Amino acid sequence: MAGGTSLVYLDANATEPLRPAARAAMLAALDCTGNPYSVHAAGRAARNLLETAREAIAARFGGAPANLVFTSGGTEADALAVHALGAGRRLVVGATEHDAIRAAAPGASVLPIDREGLAELAALEAILAGGEPALVCLMLANNETGTIQPIAEAAAICRRHGARLHVDAVQAAGRMQVDLAALGADSVALSSHKLGGPTGAGALLLTAAAARHVTPLIAGGRQERGRRGGTPPLAAIAGFAAAAEAGYEPASIAELRDAAERAAVAACGAIVCGGGPRLPNTMCLALPGVRAETQVIALDLAGIAVSVGAACSSGKVRQSHVLAAMGLGELAGQAIRVSLPWNATRADIDAFGVAYAAMVARLARRAA
Amino acid sequence: MTHPRPNRPAERYIYLDYQATTPCDPRVVEAMLPWFTESFGNPHSAEHAMGRIAEAAVEHARGEVAGLIGAEAREIVFTSGATESNNIAIKGAARFAARMDNPRRRIVTAVTEHKCVLQAVGDLAEEGFEPVFLPVGADGLVDPDALRAALAQPTLLVSVMAVNNEIGVVQDIAALAAIAHAAGALLHTDAAQAAGKIALDVEAQSIDLASISGHKLYGPKGVGALYVRRRPRVRLEPLFSGGGQERGLRSGTLPTPLIVGLGEACRLAAEEMDAEAARIGTLRDRLLARLDAAIPGLILNGSREQRIPGNVNLTFPAGSAAALMAAAPALCVSTGSACSSAAIEPSYVLRALGLGDAAAGRTLRIGIGRFTSAADVDAAAALLIEAHAAAPVA
Fold first, then answer.
1. Do residue B160 and residue B182 come from a single domain?
2. Burial class of residue B27, CB neighbours in 10 A (0-12, 13-18, 19+)
3. Number of other CB atoms surrounding residue A249 within 10 Å
4. Which of A17, B180, B227, B232 has the fewest CB atoms within 10 Å of its CB?
5. What is the pTM for the complete model shown?
6. Is residue B3 domain-resident?
7. B352: pLDDT confidence band, cut at 50, 70 and 90?
8. Starting at the edge strand that comes first in sequence, how are the strands of the sheet with B363-367 ordered?
9. What's the rounded Cα separation, in Å, for the pair B106 and B22?
10. How far apart are CA B94 and CA B108, in angstroms?
11. Which of B229, B245, B267 is at the close of a domain?
12. List of chain B residues whose C-beta atoms are within 8 Å of the C-beta of residue A76
């Protein structure tokens, strides 16, 4: 059953609501019959849609269209990057990376993360000092805390040691400037549905030099220059491009986020996890002594959608590896993620503040 | 009756390339719409109501896909499309066997398979497997005895497509599965062109793994499914990992709207397949009758009986396929499969049937489907007859 709900949706890092421009682009693309790899008129119309989207997305994220590989989403883009750029290399991954990276690089060396959530660059320097060819995977912004890594500095260290750098920009794209060239990375992974596009599309954007190393993870025909088989998800890609081009006002979202955070911290004693630069829409709030699941269930009953860490691992109750890596100890199991969508309103934030305060009061009464 | 057509600008073309891709059925689009905007939750967000609503929709769709092929819902894994399904089935079965130190190393497929199957099987040579590519007869069908002979060596997997994408021939999957199983091998079938076009039943046909594509059965592009038998259980390694969705076999956020679209497409196919096949068969016969009457020497490639109604593959006595297509630009037909047709080269499928390069170069694939009308077929026949009459005799 579909249909409207009166929910206050504050789980944008799981998936962003679809932007109207993306919806319109998708509907138009769903009306386009052809297979973009057919040579006839219907095929050429589809191809035109595909390549226009490719140009828009590449331009938006500082790369060349020829070096953009469309995938089914961020997970596949991360897997493709590790497969293509990590073959025969030592793998180094940040301790707070998304599972897509951690699972793709099971035997990797782990780059430690400090209490703020930031990668320890001195440790990166030490790991790479041996000079062994390596692929370093470091996310631009964390999905649970929103912490923004110092990618440009990490890239300089990687360059000095001849290491490649892959950046998972899935949560960052659409919420802050993401520019492949400016980051100094070899590749960035992007996901449509985390920036207000539809689910089912993503991309790996590479430098020209890195793109030469791409061998397909999904073997197929000649699609995507032989780098990824399968008919591309045309409508999802059209929506992806439209969402990528849509504007976002980080300042106003940050203002709403900060207001919600103040309400939770000042009035209720919550602790903010992670420091340093953060995405404007994300906050990670720990309530000492209260299990995260208890908080999420209470807020869900009050009509507020938030989460415990990443959506993919939810359902299974477990401690966040991100917060554990930051050395938060017990707090790692007591923190919820609140992430504002692009269309968050003051009313949403007010409702959150009321529900959060009510939850804390009820829990305090129960404890008393 | 012909279904109401999607209202799309492409209608100034006559679209007869239903094996490359099918229009998304307006009823499928309708079913998908609410899941784009109102109910956009991540189906893996089990902690809140919006996630659970999306999850319920995904599970409902899983049941519809399973229903189309006689499977159980939990035997369906959602993927980005049939190419990915084929890769997971073939490489996944091989890599799992290798991890278990299974000594079976042979993987048998046919030379007329889709490019992604040929490539997936071929790639496994680098991982210590032995790919075997069976020839086909002039009718495009795999010879059961040739399969039996190939299985003399211990074989892990046999992968034969249910319906060919260029010539539309229908393999006898039940018979091939029985042969594979007698030799202790698994049977995978690329059912991208078959699902929703002919009856499939994973139990009756004894299929272990089957790949399905959304956009080949009037669903959206970007979604597909893999059937993975549970009893006896077929075990696979994932192609890539991550959040562990789809029981660890396929990580990544499931695209709820696309999955809802695939489910609706499967439901419609199950309901309408028989009537649709009859209607399309009549149109196909009408097209062939017109062309045959005007173009003596026209050859239909592949078995005439063992084929889906919506495909003809025709070698013309004169004129190159490219010239025919150029002379009838409003007609959307093809020279081969879409994945390789952007570069025109002789089809390896046609070569496998014994056609020379010259004959293959005079061959067109014409696909008829749900939104094709008798008027479309008549107009297409007229355009082709005119184009052919103007073509120089080769």
1. yes
2. middle
3. 10
4. B232
5. 0.94
6. no
7. very high
8. B299-300, B311-315, B363-367
9. 35
10. 12
11. B267
12. 80, 240, 252
Dihedral-angle region of residue B74 (phi above 0 means left; psi in -120 to 50 means alpha; beta otherwise):
alpha
Contact of B191 with B216, CB cutoff 8 Å: no
Asked whether the beta carbons of B291 and B51 are under 8 A apart, the reply is no
Say if the Cβ atoms of A35 and B10 lie within 8 Å.
Answer: no
Is A287 in contact with A295 (CB distance < 8 Å)?
A: yes
- If one counts the domains in chain B, the total is 2
User: What residue numbers bound the domain in which B95 lies?
Assistant: 26-267
Measured in angstroms, the CA of B53 and the nearest CA of chain A are apart by 7
Residues B103 and B174 grouped into a single domain: yes
Give the domain ranges of chain A.
8-16+250-367, 20-245
What is the ipTM score, two decimals?
0.92
Residue owning tokens 């082709």: B384
Of B229, B246, B267, at which residue does a domain stop? Answer: B267
d(CA A234, CA A34): 10
Domain A20-245 falls in which CATH fold? Answer: Aspartate Aminotransferase; domain 2 (3.40.640)
Residue B281 CB partners (closer than 8 Å, separation 6+): B309
Mind listing the pLDDT tens digit for each residue in B90-145?
Answer: 999 999 999 999 999 999 999 999 999 999 999 999 999 999 999 999 999 999 99
Partner residue facing B253 (CB), from A15, A18, A221: A15
Q: Which CATH number fits domain A8-16+250-367: 3.40.1280.10, 3.90.1150.10, 3.90.1300.10, 3.40.50.970?
A: 3.90.1150.10
Chain A environment of B193 (Cβ under 8 Å):
none
Q: Looking at the domain assignment, is residue B319 inside a domain?
A: yes
**Residue type for B61, please?**
A
- Chain A residues in contact with B4 (beta carbon < 8 A): none
Calpha distance A330→A321 (Å, rounded): 12
Alpha carbon distances (Å) from B249 to B203, B238, B243, B245: 22, 5, 10, 7
CA distance A50 to A234: 6
CB-CB contact of B189 with B158 (8 Å) = no
